[in-house]
Specification:
By secondary structure, this protein is an all-alpha fold. The termini are far apart.
Length: about 110
């Protein structure tokens, strides 16, 4: 009776163990392939990031060249009404406390 129970358990346990072994191996292969696929996609995203950063730098350089003073000066001839001031037309304002208006109040100084 005991021997038949052991042989029945071994008869059921062996295929289950083989199935679990194959499932484990296929699970590991599946995980490894997914990790490899993620590594490739990360590499592609890094390349895209570098490309976007390069484009951003180029656009920033183009923007600064468009807004530069030399660009304004050269385009001043094209536009009417834009005149660069000479040094007599420039007013300098300083933050001297002596030049500020004085406060007038009825309070007496103490």
């Amino acid at each position: 009776m005991r021997k038949t129970r052991m042989s029945l358990a071994m008869l059921v346990l062996r295929p289950v163990m083989v199935i679990l072994l194959f499932a484990g191996v296929f699970g590991l292969v599946y995980l490894r392939s997914n990790v490899t696929k993620l590594e490739y996609s990360l590499g592609e995203l890094e390349k895209k990031k570098v490309h976007c950063l390069r484009d951003r730098k180029m656009l920033f350089a183009e923007k600064t060249s468009q807004l530069s003073f030399a660009r304004l000066e050269s385009s001043a001839d094209d536009r009417d009404g834009f005149v660069l001031p000479d040094r007599l037309q420039v007013v300098h304002v300083s933050k001297d406390t002596r030049s500020l208006p004085r406060l007038a109040s009825l309070k007496q100084k103490q």
